[in-house]
Amino acid sequence: MAERDGATPVYGIAVAADLADVPEATLRLYERRGLLTPFRSDGGTRRYSDDDIDRLRRVAELRDAGVNLAGIGRVLDLEDENGDLRRELEEERRSR
Q1: What is the CATH number of the domain that holds 26?
Q2: Which pLDDT score, from 0 to 100, does residue 56 have?
Q3: Residues 6+ apart with CB under 8 A from 96
Q4: pTM for this model (two decimals)
Q5: With contact defined as beta carbons under 8 Å apart, do 13 and 48 qualify?
Q6: Which residues pair with 48 in a beta bridge?
């Protein structure tokens, strides 16, 4: 069997909520606020990946630390940007 990567959308909203230990309504709120963007099937069903679950757990960590949703969004954006820059740097180093 082929391995799937962390970005493969496999979980429905109920399973994702259970894995992230948050109510389904919270997942919908986070999506409305732009904190995550689950894959949508042709029929509009949300599908979450392991990467989405990790992101939800990070949101919970920040929320528990007292950061509001706007702040969480900014932190996540900066973390994503930092990760992108690190990948670019690593690719540049490999190509030398």
Answers
A1: 1.10.1660.10
A2: 96
A3: none
A4: 0.88
A5: yes
A6: 11
